[in-house]
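Researcher: Please translate sequence to structure tokens.
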Amino acid sequence: MKLLALDTATEHMAVALVTAPGTALTRNLPGGAAASSQLIPQVLALLAEAGLPLSVLDAVAFGQGPGAFTGLRTAVSVAQGLAFGAGLGVLPIDSLLLVADDALAQAAGDTVMHQPGWVLMDARMDEIYAARYQHDGRGWHVLTAPALYDLTTLHTLWAAEAPAWACGSALTAFDGRLAPGTARCWPHIADRAAALARLAEAALQVGPLLPAEAALPLYLRDKVALTTAEREAARRASAA
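Model: Translation complete:
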């Protein structure tokens, strides 16, 4: 098993090269604007470190989102270009599930993750990318697919069914306004690239591979910025 995996959906760039089952070279680096110029050099550096040409890989995995508009385009375009050039298939990876899998590693065997919980990532514009997952001890199950939420909707959902755990950047970004009850919380990610390697390896085992032209990002919003009036209204609402 030899597999390259890329994710630039957040302000953190993750790159992983799986060289054998359970074995990977990984990089966690600043993302955002730096991702477009640094992703390919980091990929080439990992391949050189492993002594592997791209052509011997089994597939290229990529974080499909949801996440930042430009970041998603970066990972998808690089994965697609590499796969086309080497004649490889691609594997889309749920970028929110990366956060859940990292929290699972931080939980260090705590069975709370075997109950339903939420990944909550700051989507800006006072909204949250969120999804509900559960780990059964062998693998992940998607209970509620990634979607874009406001605070009111999430709190309404949690009033009906409180989450056992929650993780993601929104727990910090919303500064106490996001309250998942008594859920165990992991607001910070520890090793996104290691989680990416694990999920990419699992995805390759399950399959199927997609053709390179099927590498597409998961966008959850069409509007990517607020107007000046909308920003001012949001500021007043937050202050109130």
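Researcher: Any highlights?
Model: The domain at 96-186 is CATH 3.30.420.40 (Nucleotidyltransferase; domain 5).
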